[in-house]
Amino acid sequence: MAFHSHAHTHSHSAGNTTAQRMLLALGITLAFVVFEIIAGIYANSLALLTDAAHNVTDVIALALSWYALRVAARPANANKTFGYHRVGIVAALINGLSLVLIALYIFYEAAQRLLNPLVVEDSILIGVALIAFFVNAGTALLVLRGSENDLNQRSAFLHLAGDAVATLGAFVAGIGIFLTGWNWLDPLASILIAALILWNVGGIAREALDILLEATPRGVDVNALARAVQTVRGVRGVHDLHVWSLAQNLRALSAHILTDDMPISEGARVQREVNGLLHERYGIAHATLQLECVGCEPDALYCEMKEHNHKENLA
Asked: Mapping DSSP to helix (H, G, I), strand (E, B) and coil, where does residue 250 land?
């Protein structure tokens, strides 16, 4: 009991630290957005305004991610029996969709500028882009820790890391304009930034949708899992098997386990061994196992779930 209490306290403390770093990154990014918009208007640079627009989505993304971190830390209750883990997944999906919209708008504006190039103040573009790179890289590092295991944090990190690379593109465009006078390099840099945004968002959106649709987690072969469970002494078969994710690294499973007719104590031993196997090999933290004796042999590994029609039952 003491171990669980300590682990919960440590997790809560780590969550608070992550939220504080996220809030600091939010404040820095918001301040820089204002500066970059003013510089972009003065320099007549679409690349700077494009990056500022992308940074606005970063502000929204960081705010959503910060809020999701706070909400996800809440304990499970009677209305949310699985807790609030999916809040972070929803935030990651919203962040991804916002990036798609801003990328499409950038493509449109860049096309207009390519058709009608405007004179760009290359010295301002170079200076601001260089400052932007350090700001974006610094804020990205603030939210990097833990992002590999949290889709919500990873979506925020990709926002910021993508900006860091994008500002390098704007910086290179400014150097190119300074050396050649080719103002069309500015909208070209914007197109490359938009393409980078779309490339980054693809994986986040797919993974978030998979989790929300309760798809089988990546890297889990359900047939191999079923065969592994059947190696446990006393297990005769597996059916009605479901594997899904509550969050990126929080996997759950439910299954019916077919066994011989055995005492409850022996059934408890089977459950312990199956749970241990699922945790060690597949990282499944929460498994619900229903033991059934011989005579309940199923026809299929996966059950066909149907909606419950309350009116028909009343009739």
From this structure: strand
The 3-state DSSP class for residue 201 equals helix
Range of the domain at 298: 222-314
Residue type, 305: M
Can you tell me the distance from the alpha carbon of 65 to that of 45, in angstroms, rounded to the nearest whole number? 30
Distance separating alpha carbons of residues 30 and 279, to the nearest angstrom:
42
Report how far residue 170's alpha carbon sits from residue 174's, in angstroms, rounded to the nearest whole number. 6
Q: Do β-strands 284-293 and 250-259 pair in parallel, antiparallel, or remain unpaired?
A: parallel
Q: Does the CA dihedral 33-37-43-48 come out positive or negative?
A: positive
In a domain, 217, yes or no: no
Name 15's bridge partners: none
Q: Could you give the angle at the alpha carbon of 266 between the alpha carbons of 264 and 269, nearest 5°?
A: 110
Strand partners, 56: none
Please say whether the dihedral angle defined by the alpha carbons of residues 224, 230, 236 and 237, taken in this order, is positive or negative.
negative
pLDDT bracket for residue 8 (50, 70, 90) = very low
pLDDT in tens, 257-287: 998 888 888 989 999 999 999 999 999 988 9
Question: Rounded to two decimals, what is the model's pTM?
Answer: 0.66
Q: Do residues 135 and 190 share a domain?
A: yes
Give the Cα separation of 46 and 261 in Å (integer).
Answer: 73
Instruction: Give the closest residue to 160 by CA, choosing from 14, 51, 47.
Output: 51
**134 lies in the same domain as 186:** yes
Among residues 285, 282, 299, the alpha carbon closest in space to that of 239 is found at: 299
| Beta carbons within 8 Å of 63's beta carbon, 6+ residues apart | 26
